[in-house]
Amino acid sequence: MSLSLPLFHEPPGESHHAAFDLWLAAQQENGALRQPSSIAVYRDMWGSFTAWCLGQSPTVTLASLDTSDLSAFQQARFGMKSDDLSLSPRYALRLLRLIDRVLRHHAEAHGTPANAAASEWIATQPEVRYADSARADPLPEFLSVSEARHLITFLSSARPRPGDRHGQLALSWQALRNRVAVALQLGAGLTPGDVRLLRLDAPTSQIAGRRARPWKVAVPGNGNSPAREAPIAPWAGELLQHWLNVRAEASIAGDYLFPATRTGKPWSKEAQYVAAKQVLEDAGIDATGGGSFLLRHTFALRQLRRGAKLDQVAHWLGIEPEAMGKYQRVLTGPAKVI
C-alpha cells in the first residue's frame, strides 16, 4: 500500500501546542520561568491564540502567520469585555511578546528562518509598544482606610444580626445580590467578569463558630487568566452565606451564583456595571476614577500590607507576578490602605 500525504497530515493545532511546549520546557530548564502561576497564565494566553488560529479558514499556521492575521486577532478580541476577552494594550503586548518568543524558539529548533510577524506588528502599534511605560501604567485607584471601613459597614448592613432573620434592611433579592457581588470584589479581589462567571459550587465553606461560612471561592479561567482560588474576607464570607440562604429560599434557578433573573439567566456586563455603580453611590463612594476595579485594587494592596507574598497575591488575582509592579509603587509611598 502506498503512503499518501494525508496519512502524515499533522492534526490541527499540533504544531502550535508542540511549539509552546518546547519553548516552555526550555524556559524551565534555564530557570527563566519557575512560578506555576506564571506558567498557567502563559499557557492560557497561548491557548486562546491557538484557538483563534484553528478557528480561521484556512487555519493560521505558525509559518503562515503574518501581521494582518494578528490585526484580525486583535479586532476579534476587541470590544468583547462582556466576556472579559478583550485585548488591553498591556495584555496585547504580553501576548504578542509570548508569540514572538515561541516563534523564534520554534524556528531555532527547526533550523528555519524566524517568523517576525509578532515583533513587526508590535512595532506598528504605538499604544501596545509603549504599554509597559510608566505613563501607560498609572497607579491604581483604591479606597482609603475610612472609605473601605464605611463600605464594609454599608454592605454588611444587609446581613441579618442575631435575632433578626431578615436583616436590618428589607432588600429585594436583586439588591442583596448586588451588594454581595460588590463585597466579593472588595473581599476577594474579583473582577466584574469573575463575579458574573461564578457558579453555585464556587464557594468553599468551613465552620465558623456554630455555622458555616464561605472562606474561599473557585474562579474559572476566562482566556486572560487561569482558573484559581481566592480567599474571602470573613465579613464578605458572612454576607455571601446570607445570599446563599436567600437564593435557596427564593428558589432561584440555574447554576450561576449571581444570576440576572429568577430563571437563572446570566448577568450581563452592562447590568452588573450599573448595579455595582449604584451600590457604590448608595454607600457614598466616589468610583468615577477607577470604577468597581478600585475594590480589587484595595484587596490587593491590603493583602500586601498584611505581609502576603507578591506571587501569592498575583495568583489570587489571576495575573502574572510581573504585573504587580503598580501595587509595589503604591506601597513604597505613604498611602494607607485597608
Structural commentary:
There is one protein chain. The protein has helices spanning 14-29, 36-54, 67-77, 89-110, 117-123, 126-129, 145-156, 173-188, 192-197, 234-249, 269-282, 293-305, 310-317, 325-331; strands at 203-208, 211-219, 228-231. The protein has 338 residues and is mainly alpha-helical. Strands 1-2-3 form a three-stranded antiparallel beta sheet. A hairpin with an 8-residue loop joins strand 2 (211-219) and strand 3. The protein is elongated and about 70 Å long.
- Broad structural category: mainly alpha
Considering DSSP H and I runs of 4 or more, what fraction of the residues is helical? 40-55%
User: How would you sum up the major sheet?
Assistant: 3 strands, antiparallel
Order of helices and strands: HHHHHHHHHEEEHHHHH
Oligomer category: single chain
What's the shape? elongated
Percent of sequence in beta strands: 5-15%
Number of domains: 2
Level-1 CATH class name of the largest domain: Mainly Alpha
What is the radius of gyration? 23 Å
Biggest sheet strand line-up: 1-2-3
Distance between the termini: 73 Å
The averaged pLDDT comes out at 84
DSSP helix count? 14
Q: Which architecture name of the largest domain does CATH use?
A: Orthogonal Bundle
* DSSP, total strands: 3
CATH topology-level name of the largest domain? hpI Integrase, Chain A
Give start-end ranges of low-pLDDT stretches.
1-10, 79-85, 333-338
CATH homologous group name of the largest domain: Intergrase catalytic core
